[in-house]
Amino acid sequence: MNKNNYCQIRLETAEDYRKVENLIRESFWNVYRPGCSEHYVIHVLREDPAFVKELDFVMEQNGILIGQNMFMRTVINADDGRDIPVLTMGPICITPNLKRKGYGLKLLDYSLKKAAELGYGAVLFEGDIGFYGKCGFNYVSTFSIRYHDLPEGEDASFFLCKELIPGYLDGITGVYQTPKGYYVDDAEVEEFDKSFPKKVKKKLPGQLF
């Protein structure tokens, strides 16, 4: 990261919404599937009761929006009958031309610190351990937490966790639940995407869907 480029991390405002959605669209386009849905996901999640407005961040460099991250409240359905409150995270992104320059780690570290200051105990989400391990995430399997709808024995290396309160998940076994707001209708995504500049969808190696 160029230390001469001033970066600010602040809460997202309503005036940022369209810029953030466009930033997310540019960052995720053709990455996990032809096109993307993440820009519509955040559009929907902002109105979800589980959305944490106090942890909805944007990053600016010299006044230009270059990154964002947000969190949702969810639960682990513990095997003893309790619902254990936790957070999940994302979409998180940095503008494509600034990826792999340290901005993402700075944004992530800041976001997690603020979540801890608000008293949240743990963050669980789907991601790449190669990147998120640098910020203290580990495989959720080390915490005896299972991913919903994933058959026993299936690869769960995508499922990561970071305790914000040390020991928060000690003795907890159970099933993590992805907030329902993340599941969006493909037709609604297509309709929403029509309001953005046209981009070409491509089927590329490595895409998940």
Number of strands: 11
Tell me the CATH superfamily.
Gcn5-related N-acetyltransferase (GNAT)
**Main β sheet profile:** 4 strands, antiparallel
CATH architectural group? 3-Layer(aba) Sandwich
Shape: globular
Order of strands, main sheet, comes to 1-2-3-6
Distance, first to last CA: 32 Å
Structure overview:
There is one protein chain. This protein has 209 residues and is α+β, with helices and mostly antiparallel strands. It has a single domain, classed as Aminopeptidase, CATH 3.40.630.30. Helix 1 runs antiparallel to helix 2. It has 5 helices and 11 strands, in the order E-H-H-E-E-E-E-E-H-E-H-E-E-E-E-H. The two termini are 32 Å apart. It is globular and about 50 Å long. It has a 4-stranded antiparallel beta sheet with strand order 1-2-3-6, with helices on both faces. Strands 5-4-11-9 form a 4-stranded mixed beta sheet, with no helix packed on it. The chain has a 3-stranded antiparallel beta sheet with strand order 7-10-8, with no helix packed on it.
Could you provide a short overview of the structure?
The chain has a single domain (7-182), classed as 3-Layer(aba) Sandwich (Aminopeptidase). Helix content is 22%, strand content 24%.
